Amino acid sequence: MQKSRLARRNEQFSSAIKQIPIDMSLIKALAFTGIPDSSNLRPIFWKILLNYLPLNPKEWEDTLKENRENFHILKKEVMIFPFDLSFNIVNLISEIEDAMEEVKDSKLNQEENEKKKKMIAEKQLQLEILKDVSRTRTSMSFFHLHEEPEVDEKVLQKLKTNSEEEKKINENENENQNQNQNQNENQNENQNENENENQNQNQNQNENQNENQNLNQNENQNLNENNINLQSNTESQIKPKKPNWVLSLCNILFVFAKLSPGIGYVQGMNEILAPILYIFATDSDPESQSIF
């Protein structure tokens, strides 16, 4: 049976990255025709084209490990204050202004003054990066600055079911109270005629009412306990968070700016890095993602 055109293309691209060493001219020629979005080919091709991976596939694992270690070392060396994406940009501006006032007032000794100046410079760089990153590809959830955790649907369904049951119990309780009220009104009308009989009926009804109330209270208490237990366990049943690629974007831009003081951070670098980071993130190999 003749293979489809897509299958033949996939084979052609796959065989190109299995060569030892890989032929870079062939990689460029194939990439120019469009890299298939299958078999994890696209991220691998981009990593080779960007010289992130060596031309010998046998060296990829060691290279990724070395790159990962180097990046973490660089982050520790150049970043005094890690990015806090939960921190409001307005608050960050206020923090910088307060620190500048402290330096201006000369209330600090020389050592503290130097530390404060370094902090101000780092926070100002973070502010520039955060402003741009927060506007990066906003139509894609991948680049959303804040992402709500996904709660297990089973937990939500249980909470919803318990809420409905509690509502029904409350309705029954209200109905019982209305019935008792009507009965009491009828009893008052006939009280003069059947005083002794009504007293006995009232006594029986009060006993029944107390029993119903006790039953309803017990049911409500059990439901409340179940709801509390479910709500307390909701956090443990929240699905694992996805890798924070927004934080990765910030970290990469920051490290580059610190290592390249002659260039620094320039507005728009986030837009250049974003598609590259997105392609890298589609790599099915978790080890290759962990560098960020």
Automatic annotation (TrEMBL):
UniProt GO BP: intracellular protein transport
UniProt domain Rab-GAP TBC: residue ranges: 36-292
Which Gene3D superfamilies does the UniProt entry name for this protein?
putative rabgap domain of human tbc1 domain family member 14 like domains
Cite the Pfam families for this sequence: RabGAP-TBC
What segment(s) does the record annotate as region Disordered?
163-219
Question: What InterPro entries does UniProt report for this protein, alphabetically?
Answer: Rab-GAP-TBC_dom, Rab-GAP_TBC_sf
Recorded GO molecular functions are: GTPase activator activity
Bias kind Low complexity: ranges: 175-219
PANTHER family according to UniProt: TBC1 DOMAIN FAMILY MEMBER 13, TBC1 DOMAIN FAMILY MEMBER GTPASE-ACTIVATING PROTEIN
Q: What is this protein called?
A: Tbc1 domain family member 13-like
